[in-house]
Amino acid sequence: MYGALTSLNVSEWSAVLTATATVVYTAGTFLLWVSTRRTAMLVSAQLSKQIAIGQSNAYHAIIDAHKDVWFRIISDADLMKAFGADTDAMRRNILGTILINHCARIFIDLERGVIDKAELESFIRDARDLFGIPFVMERWQEVRGFHQKAFADFVDALKPKPAALTGRR
Predict the structure, then answer these.
(1) What is the pLDDT of residues 74-93, one digit of tens each?
(2) What residue spans define the domains of the chain?
(3) Are 101 and 66 spatial neighbours (Cβ–Cβ below 8 Å)?
């Protein structure tokens, strides 16, 4: 083999070097393509996660703004009077709305992958307890249509147990 290589003329050596360079270049190009593809996939996943986080932050800001308004209303007797005579029922409705919206925002974050799915079982137990509270379930029946279908289906599938029976708070 070594003898065959030493007997090559210049144009044959040129052909061998060109073939070797072509193989090396092709292998390098393939490896670069694989690396670029992986990087693109990682960037795409990161971008999707950033979009989900951005949407989550916007949703949280809206829910927090509503919560601030509701707390302002229930802490002001004059504002409560503007909503009607039964201020205790109004406070229960507002509290029910705040709790339902809090549960909805966690559900949406779980669904979008903003919160790790490992938290799902704990969330289901908490949500089941929450919707086992009679005034929360009553409020849910009134506001169900304002929530995303996926969340409404989730709540409907909980089959809540009364909070007093679960031993959890």
Answers:
(1) 888 888 888 776 778 888 99
(2) 2-166
(3) yes
